TrEMBL record:
EC number per UniProt: 3.1.13.1
Keywords: Cytoplasm, Exonuclease, Hydrolase, Nuclease, RNA-binding
Keyword Protein biosynthesis belongs to the record: no
Keyword Hydrolase belongs to the record: yes
Protein name: Ribonuclease R
Organism, scientific name: Bacteroides thetaiotaomicron
Domain S1 motif: 635-716
């Protein structure tokens, strides 16, 4: 009997491979990181009973010791080698368990196995202990402390059972659903969208435990879904009552004393030009002749900071939000509605306070003089972009002389800007026509026409002038602190990739030379591709090569606009940096001293981050509406173009409505396709068939998953 047993065990010994035993050993040492383990103890705990198994284990222990992964404390006794190295950084969770740690000061990512993650969440600030690196293996660490949670609230759909519930999330970084005890449900039912806060994650448990913070409504309802998108990005979806109440107490009337302090523009021809659905008019233009060929043009901006006092409850809320968020069917304002749509808004035929940049300017766009002043205005007319455009095209309509003169000056300013090396990205926007229930009925494209460009040029001029007035100082003088809008030169590597990518279409772009050389060459490229089928694609790849514009007190100029000095001054109703600039310019005009650079740099960083988050939420809402729109068109066939290539499939943008979906790589079953990152393509291993970025392609709409905001397409071979 004993012999049989021995034989059995010997067989079992053969079955465990070296790789399997190595993994088992590593796990065992990780489970007892600070203990010294004898060989005998290891054999017993891992149930290694046969001679071959023990020999293999002894070999592996010495290999791990040679790799410096474990240390032999005394003969036959080993301990995990932590090297005492601790690091602080950011934890990045992946649903496939391949988590990583990004060190604070930069450096290569370090792998953190799921078992060693201490249930850290995505983007948490953590402390890890760093394991000794094994030969030919990636560095590895273990989370020993979670220092700061990045996010502990998640949005998803509830599934309620008899005595407990789960929140099912589409969050890609959370591999498991969140368990919710029945008493923490807050009345939620199956199919409700909810926000859940993770309260604990027990060591041995697979699922985190949470409680419902808010029920957003029934999944699929339009308002519920829009609120869910905002909550997903950590953005507020309701305006605090206390702030609304504070705004209601602000008096709307303007006192004669206040008017007496300001330059009076009430009698000068003034109008606003805005989108037809706008309610907050934060800029107006005035114009009057001074003498032959010279005009006075006023760029009048809503004087928000006159009403919103620094450090007050409204100001703190605006600082936190930093920007208004524009979803497909609603605006989530930065300021309470009473301020943005009524008191501050430059509505027609109402006296309003403004902060203005006044120019003496020629028809050729030469600025002879400029000043920044507090004013009082009275707008004569509210134009939509379409109405102003009609005047420009037909040369008839209200205030035609004034509108046409502003158009002439704007075109001259624009020409000057491009001659100086500004980059002309003129992209259309996808817009939805939506019924009263929020359902998308049609898709249309919004293009920038002359009326839009007219307003844009004067806003750019005002922003630039304000930045120059503060930033441009004599040689030995230090400029006072101001939040600038900065934009760095393109990333050289990305520029090189762009050059290689467009070469296959027969285009060229300069990758070296002066700033202006490169920007002129990019403009030349954008002109060349205009109206061609590859236009959208090359424009997208070109934009990817660019840096992102952001806010900073350290001015490096704005590359894309070709301005040495640039700031944001013209939209204080919807952007907090503009409010900061208004306050600082007022302070400096009154002879005030400079402010703390580090305080304003932190505010700049926060504003840049919030701007990015708002843009992502806006994109998610467009994506949702696209999927909703296409879900009624399942089975229909469309022509499109490959707009993105990844290792998991092809993204395809439809020509007709610019909706984007994906052909999963698993559905390309005529070959084994590999992803070629450098050339933006998938290549078939056997037949060498290539799917490249920009290729024309025909698809059928296969699936629409609203929950995941995902469209799946099936390829139609022609």
């Amino acid at each position: 009997m004993a012999k049989k047993k021995e034989k059995k065990e010997k067989k079992a010994g053969k079955r465990m491979s070296k790789k399997e035993l190595a993994a088992l050993l590593i796990d065992f040492f990780h489970a007892k990181p600070s203990e010294t383990l004898s060989m005998k103890y290891i054999f017993s705990e891992l149930h290694l009973t046969t001679h071959p198994q023990k020999m293999l284990c002894a070999d592996l222990l010495h290999d791990l010791s040679d790799d410096d992964y474990i240390s032999e404390i005394e003969k036959g006794k080993f301990r995990l080698n932590n090297h005492g190295t601790e690091m602080i950084g950011t934890f990045q969770r992946k649903s496939n368990g391949k988590n990583s740690f990004i060190p604070e000061g930069g450096g290569d990512p370090i792998f953190v196995a799921e078992r060693n993650s201490a249930h850290a969440m995505n983007n948490d600030k953590v402390k890890i202990t760093f394991y000794a690196k094994r030969k030919n293996k990636d560095a590895e660490g273990e989370v020993i402390e979670i220092l700061e949670r990045a996010n502990d609230t998640f949005v998803g759909t509830l599934e309620v059972a008899k005595s407990y519930a789960f929140l099912v999330t589409e969050n890609r970084t959370l591999a498991n659903d969140i368990f919710i005890p029945k008493e923490k449900l807050k009345g939620g039912k199956t199919g409700d969208k909810a926000i859940v806060k993770v309260t604990e994650w027990p060591d041995k448990a697979k699922n985190p435990i949470g409680q419902v913070i808010d029920i957003l409504g029934v999944a699929g309802d339009n308002t519920t879904e829009m609120h869910a998108i905002l909550a997903e990005f950590g953005l507020p979806y309701v305006y605090p009552k206390a702030v609304e109440t504070a705004a209601d107490k602000i008096p709307a009337e303007i006192t004669p004393e206040e008017i007496a302090k300001r330059e009076d523009f009430r009698k000068v021809t003034t109008f606003t030009i805005d989108p037809k659905d706008a309610k907050d008019f934060d800029d107006a233009l005035s114009i009057r002749p001074i003498k032959d060929g010279l005009w006075e043009v006023g760029v009048h901006i809503a004087d928000v900071t006159h009403y919103v006092k620094e450090g007050g409850i409204i100001d703190k809320e605006a600082e936190k939000r930093a920007t208004s968020v524009y979803l497909v069917d609603r605006t989530i304002p930065m300021l309470p509605e009473r301020l943005c749509n009524f008191i501050c808004s430059l509505r027609p035929n109402e006296e309003k306070l403004a902060f203005s940049v006044i120019f003496d300017i020629t028809e050729k766009g030469e600025v002879r003089d400029s000043r920044i002043v507090h004013t009082v205005i009275n707008s004569d007319r509210r134009f939509t972009y379409e109405e102003a455009q009609q005047i420009i095209e037909t040369k008839t309509g209200d205030f035609k002389e004034e509108v046409l003169m502003l158009d002439t000056i704007a075109k001259a300013l624009r020409e000057k800007r491009f001659a100086a090396g500004a980059i002309n990205f003129d992209r259309y926007e996808v817009k939805f026509e939506i019924d009263e229930k929020g359902k998308p009925i049609s898709v249309y494209f919004k293009e920038s026409k002359d009326a839009n460009k007219l307003v844009e040029e004067f806003m750019l001029l005002a922003n630039r002038t304000v930045a120059e007035k503060v930033g441009r100082v004599p040689k030995n003088k230090k400029a006072k602190v101001l939040p600038y809008r900065i934009h760095d030169l393109p990333d050289p590597e990305k520029l090189e990739n762009l050059s290689q990518f467009i070469a296959r279409f027969g285009y060229k772009v300069r990758t070296s030379g002066t700033k202006t050389d490169i920007s002129k060459s990019i403009n030349h490229l954008l002109d060349d591709i205009h109206g061609k089928k590859e236009e959208n694609l090359i424009e997208t790849v070109s934009i990817r090569a660019m840096q992102k514009a952001r806010y900073s007190t350290h001015n490096i100029g704005h590359y894309g606009l070709a301005f040495d000095y640039y700031t944001h001054f013209t939209s204080p109703i919807r952007r907090f940096p503009d409010m900061m600039v208004h306050r600082l310019v007022t302070k400096y005009m009154d002879g005030g001293r400079s402010v703390s650079e580090s305080k304003y740099e932190d505010l700049c960083d926060h504003s840049s981050n919030m701007e990015q988050i708002a843009a992502n939420a806006e994109r998610a809402s467009i994506k949702y509406k696209q999927v909703e729109f296409m879900s009624e068109r399942l089975g229909q066939v469309y022509d499109g173009v490959i707009s993105g290539v990844t290792e998991w499939g092809l993204y395809v943008e439809l020509n007709e409505n610019k909706c984007e979906g994906m052909v999963p790589i698993r559905d390309l079953d005529d070959d084994y396709y590999e992803f070629d990152e450098k050339n933006y393509c998938l290549r078939g291993r056997r037949k060498n068939k290539i799917y490249s970025l920009g290729d024309a392609i025909t698809i059928r709409v296969a699936r629409a998953n609203l929950e995941k905001k995902q469209l799946d397409f099936a390829l139609i071979e022609k």
